[in-house]
Specification:
Helix 13 packs parallel to helix 15. It is built from 18 helices and no strands. The protein is 58% helix and 0% strand. Pfam families: EF-hand_7, Rhomboid.
Length: 420
């Protein structure tokens, strides 16, 4: 009887065939969901993916493609590249790359992940991706080629609720630093408190003033530092009036606002920039008041406070793309400014005893906006921002120069000085 040849596959039991199939699947990168007792003893299944804090830039082999296919890929990547090159400089930066990733349904990716992606693909280390670097990245990294951004987010990116240790999302917010500590506005505030207490202590035994705490402008500090239109020759008064406050309410309101807003600016822009904005607002407040109401005395730091308010608007304008919730912040400050302006106009029209220097507020606000654009940090300079910078700087110096010229060469417009 002839001997029949039997294939190896036919001689194997179903269990052995299943085991071999599972081994082939594992070798090909396929991980079926099978019971643990039936898993292959040769190659264990891939362990569950854990959340990482870095980007897994796993490379995949490039398949051999013909010239036509490569041309189509380049054209497709060129369209993606041009779409997200928002400033049309031929380069993709971190923020543009983050926008590209967000379009792939990965909207919670933090900025530091996008920075790592860009850094690992930036072969010439210039901080940007040109098209060739972008194209190579798209060909080598499966998260780009296979549109697996959703899976990428699930494994890599933290959930919407921030976890402990997560970095703030937004390049502007990441610039915040406590070194050096934000003490500029705190120091200004302490000096203002000391000057206020000097006058309060001076009048503590005077029965004519004990019912109106700190409201006298005849104390030693107020007499020396208040803006007095009859002593304009004492030039320091154009700035030093910020240390004088009429009443504890006046003092507290200015202290709260300038500390709250000043520290927020100083964390990003550092002390000297915030000091310039604040002092520019104070100087503009006295200059504007002197030109429009040449016989008005002036006290308080409101010009500097309003400069800090509009300086926030300036930094939002210049760093809009780098800030998280920029539109919310901008709306908040605009609503605040217009509400205060409307209240001020109403009070001025209805209260004949109203003594608030609204011109100082308005002048300080204008100075804060212009000087803020000029000196505060701009994290990514765009062409239109350069034009805006020049406009702001030129306009501010033109206004201040005009005010100084009027004070020097048109003395008859102002009250005669008193030298006693």
């Amino acid at each position: 009887m002839p001997v029949k040849s039997v294939s190896r596959q036919q001689s194997q039991t179903p269990a052995q065939q299943l085991q071999q199939q599972q081994q082939r699947d594992v070798e090909n990168g396929i991980y079926p969901n099978i019971p643990a007792e039936r898993r292959s003893p040769v190659r264990p299944l891939r362990p569950p993916t854990l959340r990482q804090d870095t980007v897994d830039m796993e490379e995949i082999p490039l398949n051999q493609v013909n010239v036509q296919q490569e041309s189509e890929d380049r054209q497709r990547m060129r369209e993606v590249f041009d779409k997200h090159d928002s400033d049309r400089d031929g380069l993709i930066n971190t923020h543009e790359l983050k926008g590209l990733i967000s379009d792939g349904y990965c909207r919670d990716i933090p900025a530091y992940i996008a920075e790592q992606i860009l850094r690992r693909s930036d072969t010439d280390n210039d901080g940007h991706l040109d098209f060739e670097e972008f194209y190579v990245m798209s060909q080598h990294h499966k998260w780009m080629m296979r549109n697996l951004l959703t899976r990428y987010c699930r494994y890599i990116v933290p959930p919407p609720k921030p976890l402990e240790g997560d970095e703030p999302d937004g390049a502007y917010e990441k610039q915040m630093s406590l070194c050096p500590p934000p003490l500029t506005m705190v120091i200004f505030s302490i000096i203002e408190i000391i000057m206020f207490l000097v006058d309060v202590i001076y009048f503590q035994d005077d029965p004519n003033h004990n019912q109106r705490l700190g409201e006298s402008t005849n104390g030693p500090a107020a007499t020396l530092f208040i803006y007095n239109p009859y002593k304009r020759y004492e030039a320091w008064r154009f700035v030093s009036y910020m240390f004088v406050h009429v009443g504890i309410t006046h003092l507290l309101m200015n202290l709260i606002i300038q500390i709250f807003l000043g520290i927020a600016l100083e964390l990003v822009h550092h002390w000297w920039r915030v000091a310039l904005v604040y002092l520019a607002g104070v100087l503009a407040g006295s200059m504007g008041t002197s030109l429009t109401s040449p016989r008005i005395f002036l006290a308080g730091a409101s010009g500097g406070v309003y400069a800090l308010i509009t300086a926030h608007i300036a930094t939002i304008i210049m760093n809009y793309s780098e800030m998280e919730y920029a539109i919310v912040q901008l709306l908040f400050f605009l609503v605040f400014c217009f509400t205060d302006l409307g209240t001020s106009v109403y009070r001025h029209l209805t209260d004949q005893h109203d003594q608030i220097g609204y011109v100082a507020h308005l002048s300080g606000a204008v100075a804060g906006l212009l000087v803020g654009i000029g000196v505060l940090r701009n994290l990514e300079v765009r062409s239109w921002e350069r034009v805006l910078w020049w406009i702001a700087v030129i306009f501010y110096f033109a206004l201040m120069t005009t005010g100084i010229i009027v004070h020097i060469f048109v003395p008859d417009y102002f009250p005669k000085p008193e030298y006693n």
